[in-house]
């Protein structure tokens, strides 16, 4: 297997690994979590005080955003590790030839 | 001239609608403009796509701000609701009821709705809607150009996130003003 196909396969796997499913999960979470937390906290946490439940919904939406940023950063770090590993594999295959 | 004319709910519902409409227009502009940049980036470096989708997620949050203000204005509740025994069916039914039930400050056809409350709700909806429009516009332009620059220089990422946070906080300011205004609506009486 040549060096170029090894690198190409690694990058292919790196960005196809469940990007679509992650996006679907995040879209649904961004839609359901703020509204759900608004109504649930309005009923059970704050006893009808609508300002506090609106603030809870805002905090929930921003938590989803922060978790998305953290997840994308972690995925990027994982991709860089994979790229380094495949670069080592390419070096080894060249040496063994 | 009475304090609770029959045309007062027009202003209240106009506030509900304008909050949702304008913040959605801003979010749509932000999503589409950032999406153009991401489509350009995806041709050269597809592994950066997940990180460059952050402007799109932030535009979605602008729309959520407008949605929360709309729900807040349209369906506030009195605090007399008590929590009975927690059965799953009752929970579902009570959740459905909280959406439909009315408070004095929200719009209810069986109770008189003061014109003051109508104007306050209109102002709250417009405040959230137009600031959402501004925030979405900023997120779109910043997202587009920063994502294109991210192809060539990876250190643009931190600057992009910082600028996007500042742009989104504009929408948050409008939401805070809408919340504060909404509390004033309960002070009006009919006679």
From TrEMBL, chain A:
Keywords: Cytoplasmic vesicle, Endoplasmic reticulum, Membrane, Transmembrane, Transmembrane helix. InterPro entries: Vma21. The keyword Methyltransferase does not apply. GO terms for biological process: vacuolar proton-transporting V-type ATPase complex assembly. Signal peptide: none annotated. The keyword Zinc-finger does not apply. The chain crosses the membrane at residues 19-39, 51-71. One of its GO terms (cellular component) is cytoplasmic vesicle. It comes from the Eukaryota. This is Vacuolar ATPase assembly integral membrane protein VMA21.
TrEMBL record, chain B:
V-ATPase is a heteromultimeric enzyme composed of a peripheral catalytic V1 complex (components A to H) attached to an integral membrane V0 proton pore complex (components: a, c, c', c'', d, e, f and VOA1). The decameric c-ring forms the proton-conducting pore, and is composed of eight proteolipid subunits c, one subunit c' and one subunit c''. Proton-conducting pore forming subunit of the V0 complex of vacuolar(H+)-ATPase (V-ATPase), a multisubunit enzyme composed of a peripheral complex (V1) that hydrolyzes ATP and a membrane integral complex (V0) that translocates protons. V-ATPase is responsible for acidifying and maintaining the pH of intracellular compartments. This is V-type proton ATPase proteolipid subunit. It comes from Dentipellis fragilis. Residues 15-73, 122-181 form the V-ATPase proteolipid subunit C-like domain. Belongs to the V-ATPase proteolipid subunit family. The keyword Membrane applies. The chain crosses the membrane at residues 6-31, 52-74, 115-143, 155-181. Its main location: membrane. The keyword Isomerase does not apply. PANTHER family: V-TYPE PROTON ATPASE PROTEOLIPID SUBUNIT. Signal peptide: none annotated. It is found in: Membrane; Vacuole membrane. GO terms for molecular function: proton-transporting ATPase activity, rotational mechanism.
């Amino acid at each position: 297997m040549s060096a170029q196909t090894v690198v190409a396969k690694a990058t292919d796997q790196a960005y196809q690994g469940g990007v679509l499913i992650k996006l679907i999960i995040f879209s649904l979470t961004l839609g359901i979590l703020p509204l759900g937390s608004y109504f649930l906290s309005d009923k059970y946490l704050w006893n009808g005080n609508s300002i506090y439940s609106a603030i809870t919904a805002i905090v929930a939406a921003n938590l989803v955003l922060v978790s998305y940023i953290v997840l994308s950063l972690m995925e990027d770090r994982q991709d860089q590790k994979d790229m380094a590993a495949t670069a080592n594999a390419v070096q080894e295959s060249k040496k063994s030839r | 001239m009475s304090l609770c004319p029959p045309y007062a709910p027009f202003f209240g519902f106009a506030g509900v609608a304008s909050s949702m409409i304008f913040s959605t227009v801003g979010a749509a502009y932000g999503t589409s403009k950032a999406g153009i940049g991401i489509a350009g980036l995806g041709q050269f470096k597809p592994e950066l796509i997940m990180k460059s989708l952050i402007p799109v997620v932030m535009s979605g949050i602008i729309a959520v701000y407008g949605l929360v203000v709309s729900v807040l204005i349209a369906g506030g509740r009195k605090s007399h609701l008590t929590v009975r025994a927690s059965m799953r069916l009752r929970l579902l039914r009570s959740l459905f009821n909280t959406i439909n039930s009315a408070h004095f400050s929200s719009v209810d056809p069986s109770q008189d709705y003061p014109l003051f409350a109508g104007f306050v709700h209109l102002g709250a909806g417009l405040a959230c809607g137009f600031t959402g429009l501004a925030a979405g516009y900023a997120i779109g332009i910043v997202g587009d150009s920063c994502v294109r620059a991210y192809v060539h220089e990876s250190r643009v990422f931190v600057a992009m996130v910082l600028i996007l946070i500042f742009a989104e906080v504009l929408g948050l300011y409008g939401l805070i003003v809408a919340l504060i205004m909404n509390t004033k609506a309960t002070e009006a009486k009919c006679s």
